[in-house]
Design the sequence.
């Protein structure tokens, strides 16, 4: 339900909602915002109008401004430290992450931006370590079959070595993690290349701030999508979601004591001289 409502006792007629609407469908009738019925279908549901209103006078799509959290930006130092201290965790404790923590993470990834606010990213969460263990076993069985039948995809012969390692007790593909989180998007969405990766980046940072460990996992992605594609299907990832990536996570078995130093490897500053050369 579109349900665009303005509380006239609160509205101070500042025009911020009209100015900030990215699709410019709000107009002011004697100072009060409104959206005509013909323009309502153009709304992308971004809720900028609700967020920008200084007096919480405006609701839309059934959302209540009084239920919104106040904005409290973390200090730049705290955010920088989080970004510099997160590491790829490859050693996990076996127990499940608390349900409340998982729910909180799912709520947060729903706030990640998407092209045109389409929010067509599918989030696939393995929240039960027993299910994760079964996925591990079935994936390894699929790899074993591909090795036996000599049908590993071209360029992925190294999965045979991962199988040997697994048989010796080392899980190189899923890193022994008790949980898996996948974001994927359909090819016909506005930004399939970017949307899942933004959500996963948010997930990783927030997971770290909640005391969890995580690792981006290309091996798991290739295993589930290319080497044993029936596993990807069994996990519910549609075939047209080619843009997908995997993060393994859980309570870490390792604690890093400090950040490290890193140099920017490739920074190209564009100055006027570059533009002159291009003529
Ligand atoms: C897109 C992507 C895919 C990755 N795939 C794997 C993987 O399959 N297995 C793994 O152990 N680490 C994987 N990593 C982790 C990288 O090796 C790691 O980010 C890099 O070595 C830097 O270390 P740090 O994340 O601890 O800073 C991946 C990272 C990214 C960004």
Sequence:
């Amino acid at each position: 339900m579109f349900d665009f409502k303005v509380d006239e006792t609160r509205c101070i007629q500042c025009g911020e909602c009209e100015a900030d609407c990215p699709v410019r469908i709000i107009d002011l009738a004697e100072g009060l915002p409104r959206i005509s019925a013909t323009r309502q279908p153009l709304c992308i549901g971004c809720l900028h109008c609700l967020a920008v209103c200084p007096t919480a006078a405006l609701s839309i799509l059934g959302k209540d401004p009084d239920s919104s959290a106040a904005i409290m930006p973390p200090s730049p130092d705290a955010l920088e430290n989080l970004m510099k201290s997160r590491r790829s965790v490859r050693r996990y404790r076996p127990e499940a992450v608390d349900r409340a923590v998982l729910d909180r993470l799912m709520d947060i990834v729903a706030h990640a931006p998407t092209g045109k606010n389409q929010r067509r990213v599918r989030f696939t969460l393995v929240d039960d370590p027993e299910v994760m263990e079964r996925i591990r076993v079935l994936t390894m069985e699929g790899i074993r079959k591909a090795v036996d039948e000599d049908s590993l995809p071209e360029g992925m012969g190294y999965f045979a070595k991962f199988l040997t390692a697994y048989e010796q007790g080392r899980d190189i593909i899923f890193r022994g993690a008790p949980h898996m989180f996948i974001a994927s998007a359909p090819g016909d969405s506005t930004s399939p290349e970017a949307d899942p990766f933004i959500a996963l980046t948010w997930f990783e940072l927030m997971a770290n701030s909640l005391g969890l460990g995580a690792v981006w996992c290309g091996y798991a992605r290739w295993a589930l999508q290319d080497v044993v594609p029936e596993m990807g299907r069994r996990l519910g990832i549609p075939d047209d979601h080619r843009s997908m990536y995997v993060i393994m996570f859980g309570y870490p078995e390792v604690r890093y004591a400090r950040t490290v130093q890193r140099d920017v490897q490739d920074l190209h500053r564009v100055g006027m001289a570059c533009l002159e050369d291009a003529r």
